[in-house]
Amino acid sequence: MVYVLGGWQSDFAANWDRQGMEIADAFAVTLREGMDAAKLDASEIETGHVGNFVAELFARQGLLGGFFGQVDPAFDGLPTSRHEAACASGSIAILAAAAEIEAGRYGLAAVIGLEQMRNVPGQQAAEHLGAAAWTGHEFSEARYVWPRAFSDLADEYDRRYGLDYKHLMGISEINFGNAKRNPNAQSRAWAFTPESFTANDDANPVVEGRTRKMDCGQVTDGTAVVFLASAERAAEYAAKRGLSLEDLPRISGWGHRSAPISQSTKMRASAGEDYVFPQVRRAVLEARARAGVELDGIDAVETHDCFTVTEYMAIDHLGLTAPGEAWKAVEDGTIAMGGRCPVNPSGGLIGLGHPVGATGVRMVLDAAKQVTGTAGDYQVEGAQRMQTLNIGGSTTTTVSFVVERGAGSFLRRQSLY
Fold first, then answer.
1. How much is the pLDDT for 405?
2. 3-state DSSP call for residue 349?
3. Which H or E run contains 226?
4. Selection from 95, 417, 108 nearest residue 253 by Cα
5. Angle in degrees, 0-180, between the axes of helices 308-317 and 145-160, rounded to the nearest 10
6. pLDDT at residue 415 in the model
7. pLDDT of 410
């Protein structure tokens, strides 16, 4: 069992380049703010992990683990590593840190996810992000690779089950609405009209194929950090702060699956099956199995909504509806705040923002906040168990976590975030 001792998230509305910040500055601020929030000293941390996709392209910077040693002299000599799995990079970094802890190598890990994406023109950013597709083999005619890829997913859903655009816009409206309650959300101050959530070409212009502006997750500069600990270290940490071990959030289950990099290969392989992406479904179920829970034990979800159709796919792969019937969860309020299983109370990638390497870490941080009752205005009432679903590429890599706190524990609301 791996425990979450605390963490911190940056303001996803920030533009580092305009603020005169480099990726190294963001790294340092995040680590320091995170340690301060969790009341940890640098000397207590035994290993460091970084989730990042393409810093070499956006910032011309690699070897990101080396920035730990720049932050504090106590980190000089710290064993560090960097992990890449496109949009699932942060989750892979968490998996690696958790594996080290479970193996007994280290007792306390810092996991930071970060991405700088707003320092280049939009077309160049799209080209950089396209590196997670099969370069030279798919979407070569598209101007924007990922809007095109997920337009193709919408086509696939339409062929198999039928798809009404109003349900995709229902997802968009929910996520942007949730983001208004999140003080770190990139879109929290944005204004919309009713026409924004329609197929109106002026209010919601086409980006690629079936993908329109309001279907899209955001291009974001952002970071998140979490501190993971073994049961022994977590118990010591809790005792020093007048808490019990049961008060601390923990990662009780995980699922991790990969599929071929080509989206068309994946779709051909699943023809005639219940789910468009069987490996996504496997990761979801394996996370719950390891946690020893069923769907009815999940109080809310933070899922990957790089596009509205990605969340539409996630809804049925999570089991909230039968395959192809995600529209029901939109229409009946299942996924809205106050619904049976709220999805993306944070605002998700659409409303909160999507700094690629940070997203998986941010999801676990938000899950930890929810189960400890410290999510503020976007708190899901009574949440004790959350599930995350983070994908890289066209579901080439999928990671899901179950985050919970001890049943019946009473958390003294000491913010660790």
1. 93
2. helix
3. strand 222-229
4. 95
5. 50
6. 65
7. 42
Q: Assess contact for 356 and 115: CB atoms under 8 A.
A: yes
Q: Which two tokens stand for residue 167?
A: 């349900």
Position 386 scores a pLDDT of 98
CB 281 within 8 A of CB 257: no
Strand partners, 387: 301, 402
Q: Beta strand 206-208 with 211-212: parallel, antiparallel or unpaired?
A: antiparallel
Residue written as token pair 């802890």: 101
Q: Among 267, 81, 301, 84, which residue's Cα sits nearest to residue 160?
A: 267
CA-based radius of gyration for the chain: 20
CA 369/CA 417 separation, integer angstroms: 7
Residue 350 CB contacts under 8 Å (≥ 6 apart), including other chains:
171, 172, 175, 176, 179, 187, 216, 217, 218, 305, 308, 311, 344
Positive or negative: CA dihedral 12, 17, 20, 22: positive
Task: State the pTM of this model.
Answer: 0.97
Report d(CA 23, CA 50) in Å as an integer.
Answer: 13
Distance between CA atoms of residues 395 and 413, nearest Å: 37
- CA dist., res. 249 & res. 251, Å (int): 7
Which residues of the chain register pLDDT less than 70?
A: 407-415
DSSP code, position 155: H
Please state, in angstroms and rounded to a whole number, the distance separating the CA atoms of residues 243 and 400. Answer: 28
Cα(98)–Cα(105) distance, rounded to whole angstroms? 10
For residues 367 and 408, what is the distance between their CA atoms, to the nearest angstrom? Answer: 18
Contact call for residues 200 and 166 (beta carbons, < 8 A): no
DSSP states of 73-119: GGGTT--EEEE-BTBTHHHHHHHHHHHHHHTTS-SEEEEEEEE--SS
